[in-house]
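Dear U.,

For the methods section draft, I wanted the exact inputs and outputs in one place so we can describe them consistently. I've listed the two proteins in the order they'll appear in the manuscript figures. Please don't edit the token lines directly; just add comments below if something needs changing.

First protein:
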Amino acid sequence: MITTELAHAYFEQHQAQILADWFELLRFPSIGADRQRLGDCSRCAAWLKRYVRAMGFVTEIRLANEHPVLLAERPGKPGAPVVLFYGHYDVQPADPLELWSSQPFEPELREGRVYARGASDNKGQIFAFLQGVAALLAAGVEVPTIRLVLEGEEESGSDGLIACLSQWRQSLQADVMLVSDSSAHASGRPAIIAGMRGILHLTVTLRGATRDLHSGSHGGVAPNASAGMARLLASLHDAQGRIAVPGFLECVVPPTPQELACAQAEPFDAAEYERTIGVAPLGGEAGLSAVERASFRPTIEVNGVHSGYGGPGSKTVLPAQAVAKLSARLCPGQSPRASGEQIVAHLQANCPPGLTLEISELSTGAPALRLSLETPVMRLAEEVLQQLDPRGAVFEWMGASIPVIGALRDVSGASPLLVGFAREEDAIHAPNESFGLDQFQADMTYASLILAALAGEPLPPAS
């Protein structure tokens, strides 16, 4: 019988080496979206290859869209379900660098938290899983056959990996797919992810004059690309925050009453949300709860706008060009390709007079994923997570996206199980990303318990 103490004891005994190895992994600036960092991605994948080979895995690195993908397998208990673990070693860019309290690729441990880019998303959670495996092996516990897929392009859509999956089918066959790239519930309870939104993103450019113009000489005469972009972006939503793109909402499949009830089982604390992130939860469609908006409704968001002068003082110009980065989160029933076409058609129809519209970098990503709550692996996860928190787990429908999961499920035949231990305070995708040692140990403990349970080890009685 495996208890939560096994992983905790292993961490306490090996903490210095675990942190040293984790820090070494975090030092790789493996920014997969930056092609100039492909060398760093290759070195990071090679480091992971060496690390898991020492744990008894047979390893291989393959290329997907020039990004290294580590495939590894460790044969385990005959007759036990085969486990496929997916994670990504690529990280978000670190900018704005001036907002970091320490160097983003030089990890620091401060007050029980490790600060570095990737500390939480996803290197920290990958490494915690591997330590959960290591704890079982050190204790002589039989584990299932474990297959690893660790990629370097998730933060930019996993297009390369998705394109290669059908060719790699034989190496990916499994019964259960474990993913630790999500968060605990805001209440602190463990969360089992029962769905994710799909994603697409694009770049919008408006061009006017051949150069920036003097606002005194040309103001009121020549079109202003910055002002035009503001009007164009505002046209994406109506006054109530509802998406105004024709046809965009027509195919959205709403949640079932059971799904909505499960998602709202733990009350949403608006005051705590505002305290944590510094702004009230007032975005999106008016009249819908925050849980509905975050989990079951699509979005179109402006990720960045760049135009004109932004330095100290003033510079009285009419900008000749404006660029906006947009992304959309999609719900079941929405086709990423059709949704992208609808957004582009809307932008073209609403292009301000006198300006030229250009759409580039349109990536239609992956569709939304919604999972059954009644699968055996979901029920097993509930039992395991009861060991970590006597309140038990909650089901969540993640507003974010992990683009490859649906395709990986279809190719591998595995039943997905998404349980992660990130928290809002981790500041993923932002400066000062971090991951608490308590989170790391919880992730590690969950990994050891779920793997042991899948191998047939009984769980302790629920407290």
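Second protein (the one for the lower panel):
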Amino acid sequence: MLRAASQRVFIQSLAAFVHQEVTLRGWVYRLRVLGKTTFVILKDCSGEAQCVGASGVIRELHLKAEDVIEVRGSVRADQRAKSGCEVSILEVRVLNRAAANLPFNAASDIESVGLETLLEHRPLALRNPLVGDVFQVQAALLKLFREYLSSQRFTEIITSKIVASGTEGGTNLFALKYFDRIAYLAQSPQFYKEHCVAGFERVFETGHVYRAEPHATSRHLTEYYSLDVEFGFIDGPEDVIQLERELLAYIFEGLQKSYAPILDAHRKTPLPQMLNAPCWEFEECLELLKEHFHRADLTDDLDPEAERQLCQLAKDKTGSSAVFVLGFPLGARPFYTAPRDAHGAANSFDLLFEGIEITTGGQRLHRRDDLESALRGRGMEPANFESHLRMFDLGMPPHGGFAIGLERLTARILDLPNVRQAVLYPRDRYRLTP
């Protein structure tokens, strides 16, 4: 039994307890037995510490990697140790034992472990820095997203994810039984954030959205986390694009400042300067693809190969591996999209970032009559959207916004080949557990 010991200390704080007795709790990350001395590398949420004890005492405990233990010991400074300190073990208590014959250990070479195995043993994988650091960066990304928008007078909103109909005409929806009728999981908070523009002017939301699309690719999910922004009194989509430039520049600067070692471990090049990201018209992009890659097969949208090619061109021409593409054909965009000109272009854009689309945004229609006409033009009945349309009778300013897929952005920032590596528990066409 351990005596009543000092309060538990996090490993990162050990330097403040040199020559004092402390209690540490964590997982056995590694064990090294050198004759009469055993080194227990202990890991908690703040870092790793080297604990040193007599091999005979440690041997009696039958410790192994991933066991959960409590260590009482005295702290001494040691610049050779990762934490700058070493702990001389006085007592050890096993709080819980890990199973034997785990498929890998937290200290394993994780690159040799398959993604499916990592997903099936998620908590264990997260204790490996190569995996866990992805979600530390993702958490920081979310924090910086909120910080910047809050500093620009945006209000964070929280809206329902159970809806009566889809935002884009009812396609790609997951249906669920809602008492005596059918409801759906929201594929976007688009309608709600537009409503809130009429109340707060500037709003943002972070939350899950759902797309019943039968993809099985390295870039698609059926449940993903969307970073949504909407604001009023804009003059055009250029205002929306500029806000996203500034937002991402702030996020990237913050990540580079606080997580440079992690970024360097994952990326070969620095994050792009988003304030320099060009904006090219869709028709211009088609001409560039034809000129440089002999592509003449695209008409109303871009395929994944075209996204990669345009990012490469942007990097060659401007030094930025990100490019905004503005003016997609109106017919390929949602009904609420504002037209760009009389020739069928839309005030809608995508942000292509290092070879993949991570954002869709643009200017919206803000007059009820225009929305009703747009719905009829697509063969949809305005009466089916009455609960949405009536909000435009309450004084809706010209507005626009965008949505960023958090997982895709994380994957690109850290140069991950599969978006599922940036999701704790992915949901795709085939995966519903754990």
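Candidate sentences for the figure legend, describing the second protein: The chain has a mean pLDDT of 94. The domain at 11-96 is CATH 2.40.50.140 (OB fold (Dihydrolipoamide Acetyltransferase, E2P)).

Thanks,
Y.
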